[in-house]
Write a structure and sequence with these properties.
The chain is globular, with a radius of gyration of 19 Å. Strand 7, helix 6 and strand 8 form a beta-alpha-beta unit. The chain folds into two domains: about 180 residues, Rossmann fold (3-Layer(aba) Sandwich); about 80 residues, N-(1-d-carboxylethyl)-l-norvaline Dehydrogenase, domain 2, CATH 1.10.1040. It has an eight-stranded mixed β-sheet, with helices on both faces. With about 290 residues, the protein is an alpha/beta fold. Helix 1 crosses helix 2, helix 7 crosses helix 9 and helix 10 crosses helix 11. It starts with 8 loop residues before the first strand and ends in a 16-residue tail after the last helix. The protein has eleven helices and eight strands. The structure holds 3-hydroxybutanoyl-coenzyme A. 3-hydroxybutanoyl-coenzyme A binds next to helix 2, helix 7 and helix 9.
Length: about 290
Amino acid sequence: MKTVDNVRKIGIVGAGTMGSGIAQVAAQSGYEVILNDISDSFIQNGIAKIQKGLGKAVEKGKMTKEEMANIMSRIRGSVSLEDLANTDVIIEAILEDRAAKKQVFASLDSICKQDAILASNTSSIPITELASATKRPDKVVGMHFFNPAPVMKLVEVIRAVQTSDETKELVKALAVKMGKVPVEVNDFPGFCTNRILVPMINEAAYCLMEGVASAEAIDQVMKLGANHPMGPLELADLIGLDVCLNIMEVLYSEYGDPKYRPCPLLRRLVQAGRLGRKTGWGFHKYE
Ligand code: 3HC
């Protein structure tokens, strides 16, 4: 492809929290967006989230109703990957399932334009492995956004073993066009942010399990003593306890280092279905 100036249409696969957030950011940056998922109800949920987010900006006077309508008009839902045939960059943001992601990458590879870039928002699956599921591994790259995607500035740009310089530079420039700050990292388990952040959350779960302090106190010490905007347990509730556990499992199995062993309390809460904000209860309870 060329350069970032050739990018007009962006495909997003997965309309969950991250996918819809990324779709919002892309549409707000002027791109035509196709938001794909396996069912219409998932897409409608994703679009409703975007409408709610933009609606709040209108209420606060940060955006006009017309601007919101223009942004929404750039987003089109789709339940078929074939609809992404004409997109220039595709960002995959489906659930963290290795086999499912590889399947999506193989399908996108056969459907999308030869010069289209295939990016993944995975939080833990090696980009090198996803690249190997395609016949264009040099055009596969990680674009890791952070929750809430419309707010968080960082995009970790992850370079697989096979990613070309051209691809890496293009997505870095794209992240800038989307109002984000790209930071380049290599393809190691958990990449860079999650390798540091999620073991901290895991340690906070150990502190709770061992009775070092209450959940409220653990969050308070990190907010007041380390200036974190949220405590680690509140943050786990925002990310999803299942996602945190999954990242710890990846770090533990890929590095084989006991320092990454997942906290048994984290595992129990996931088994109990206490996944955080999305289920109304994780380390904390939500209305
Ligand atoms: N979606 C969209 N916008 C949101 C939002 C959401 N879910 N939550 C908050 N915002 C917006 C608000 O509307 C507000 O916008 P404004 O400045 O234009 O009025 C702005 O963000 C600030 O929100 P609030 O005043 O309500 O609250 P805070 O100042 O406490 O900020 C926060 C909320 C941005 C979530 C902040 O607490 C924070 O930065 N928390 C840490 C988040 C974090 O670490 N995320 C990374 C998670 S790890 C990850 O995603 C990687 C994955 O692979 C696991």
